[in-house]
Fold this protein.
Amino acid sequence: MGKAPSATTTACQECDLLIQRPAPTKSNEARCPRCGHRDSASRYYSAQSSIAVSLTALIIAIPAHLYPQIAFTLLGRPASYTLFEGALTLFNSGFWWVGCMILLCTVIAPLLVLMCIFLISLSWILRRVNETTARLLKLLHYTTNWAMLDVYLLSMIVSLVKLQDMGKFELSTGFFCLIALLVLTTAATLLFNSEACWDAVERQRNARH
Amino acid sequence: MLAINAQLAHCRVCGKLASRPSEGAYACPRCHTPLHFRTPRAISRSWAFTISAAIGFVPANLYPIMNVQSIDKSFTSTIMSGVIDLAQNDMLPIAIVVFVASIAVPLFKLLGIAVLLIIVQRGKPIKRQQAMRMYRFIDFIGRWSMLDLFVISILASLVSFGQLASIEANIGATAFAAVVILTLFAAESFDPRLIWDLQDLEHERTDL
């Protein structure tokens, strides 16, 4: 086995080059000199803003999911659409596999990401970083890639264009909440720094021994 | 100097840089997931997902993804016929968006991963920066092919007026969902560090 590396030494995630990680700054992320990979772990982590943004996003998520996003009328007959109903329709018509994926990418994964960021930052602020924090950090790692609210927003626009000559539609409350949710989720992901939190978990473990 | 040459491994889950023995299984000291210098069997796993996705791509495009029924007409729509339909109705920008997301992206992604895998397996010197740019691009675009599935769920749930008009999902949607997932896994299984283990065609900077 090799020597244990110093605390500031890291390896580039994408090309394995050993680099000295600079002290985090607010302005920019460090880049790997060989492959140019942005090291998101070198970002400045503010638990307060992470909490603020993720909590706001979680609150906004309630109307974004419960209120209809599109109201549609065809020959005087109304119909409305919420995220759950979309997935449910697919379930009911036998496409449970597609329904599951849509539910995962638009509801479950984004909510899990926000919950993880919120709870981890909360444990950081309360100085209660422990093994649960470690588990949440792992969960966050596996769910981040599946949150696809940005793709979903574009697909709403495509659907509206497809619907425009069938009937009349109106964007309602849920739609605007969804945009806010998307912006806030992106902000929360950018403000968060999992490396700083993993470090805290390790410090906590060392302190206990 | 590379981490692997210093007997160090970078954890892909938690980002920990830790020393590990050169042989045998070893868990990351920080997150307890298996820690490797390079993802084991990355190439064969990635090939498996790529080939499965390529097979799924055929039914995804041949079978209809939607049944559209209204008073005057009733038809099934495949991915391509949906694009053509949009283009004919003077909605070219949206037609291009759908074409790129549903056909160009999965196809490009499959070809791209296959090319990267072949490059890594040949082991000949390459332009690494260029290969890396391709890898990052593939990794970034993959998620956008979910677009058509979301559209189906929105349309199917909004347009259900019985005899008057209704849109339903069809078998192609299942195949397409499988393709999207498989391409996401294919890109995820690939280990970009393998690209950098190859010799570079261009001037090698030895000071790094």
